[in-house]
Write a structure and sequence with these properties.
The protein is mainly α. Strand 1 and strand 2 form a beta hairpin. It has 17 helices and two strands.
Length: 392
């Protein structure tokens, strides 16, 4: 165990020593990241945040690689959906998370990210497990809307690490948990479309396979959500409930917190900037597998494996985006962070056009790797800006 806090013994807090170096002037937030450490409270929260977000993303996009099968006619084992109906369900999936993300910020301010993360994971697991009950486009759209609420755990993920790490390392910490969490969107393409679905098909019909396979991620998500609530902490000095009771944290109004964020012009500017990169990723996660089936004639298993590549870039690209943002901030301040993100968004925009007009499968895959790397790095660069939107 490394450095302890330098504050006096009279201060009320849950832990008197920590597994990482901390800054007492920033509420005992960690000044370093020890990836191989799982100690409470800092690194436990770090790992719980990305694992919870990873599982939420896995659940959120578990249906995506199965859509080429689900859209087929009832005679072929599907429910008979048009391409437009598929896109409508994709939009509903994103609407769910968009709606909930506006609520999650103020709720995290009031109750902390730990409980909200766990509850959302458990809630999203229920409609995921009920995937097999859909019979038409309307029921699928409603189902995906409620599953999409789990995608809002991103807010919990970022809030949690911002609560645990100082602003100087927040870009790297937030990018790592965000990137590793978003990796779930790529892993689910591979696991659901190329592993579990073919495995289920060996013992049952195509229709029964897609109707039952989503139970697997649902069960995992539900129990992980429950576990997170009990094995982690809200903040370096303890849980919000305890801190409010002992007077080390004031009572916060969720409504006042929402108004404060909504009235800050920087919130909306960053909202647009992040939409230009994360919005692209959501579209790719929803549509990539179907795109490779429709445009290049790939099987569901093959298309899902290819589509998963986009998500796998999260393994390192977001971390790089946040790391570079921290480095240019040390040299140029906030101006450096903004220049870095602006450059990434411009390159990303160019690559979208190039990818969309690529006619060969090999070329499309290579471009998707480069395109995804830039998209994830742009997202990572956002996390270095977040702590400065409202320094309080």
């Amino acid at each position: 165990m490394s450095t302890a806090v330098a504050s006096g013994e009279a201060e009320i807090k849950k832990y008197q020593t920590y597994h990482v170096k901390v800054d007492p002037d920033q509420d005992d937030k960690a000044t370093e990241i020890k990836l191989c450490n799982f100690g409470r409270p800092h690194m436990r929260a770090f790992h719980c945040s990305w694992m919870g977000f990873f599982t939420a993303f896995f659940i959120w996009f578990a249906i995506a690689p199965l859509l080429p099968v689900i859209k087929k006619s009832p005679e072929e084992g599907g429910i008979g959906l048009s391409r437009q109906e598929i896109w409508t369900t994709n939009i509903c999936s994103v609407l769910g998370t968009t709606f909930m993300r506006f609520i999650n910020g103020p709720m995290c301010d009031k109750y902390g990210a730990r409980i909200l993360m766990g509850v959302l994971l458990m809630f999203a697991s229920i409609p995921c497990a009920l995937t097999g009950l859909v019979n038409d486009a309307a029921s699928l759209a409603v189902l995906r809307f409620f599953i999409g609420l789990g995608g809002s755990t991103f807010v919990c993920c970022q809030f949690w690490t911002s609560r645990m790490f100082t602003k100087e390392v927040a870009g790297t910490a937030n990018a790592l948990v965000g990137g590793w969490g978003n990796l779930g969107g790529g892993v689910t393409q591979l696991v659901m479309g190329s592993v579990l679905f073919p495995l289920f098909q060996t013992g049952m019909s195509v229709e029964m396979a897609w109707r039952t396979v989503c139970i697997v991620p649902a069960v995992v998500g539900f129990f992980l959500g429950l576990l997170i609530i009990f094995i982690s902490d809200d903040a370096p000095k303890g849980n919000y409930k305890e801190m409010k009771m002992n007077g080390t944290m004031p009572e916060i109004s969720a409504a006042a917190s929402f108004r404060s964020g909504a009235m800050n012009i920087n919130t909306w500017l960053l909202f647009l900037q992040y939409g230009c990169c994360f919005g692209v990723e959501l579209t790719m996660n929803n549509a990539a597998a179907s795109y490779f089936v429709n445009e290049f004639g790939q099987t569901v298993a093959s298309a899902a494996a290819i589509a998963s590549i986009f998500g796998w870039m999260n393994l390192f690209a977001r971390g790089i985006g946040g790391y570079v943002s921290d480095k240019v901030n040390a040299r140029m301040g906030m101006k450096g962070r903004l220049i870095w993100q602006g450059a990434l968004l411009v390159v990303e925009g160019v690559l979208i056009f190039v990818f969309a007009n690529t006619k060969s499968l090999a070329g499309a895959i290579v471009l998707m790797v480069i395109f995804s790397t830039i998209v994830q790095a742009a997202e990572g660069s956002t996390y270095g800006i977040v702590p400065y939107v409202n320094p309080r």
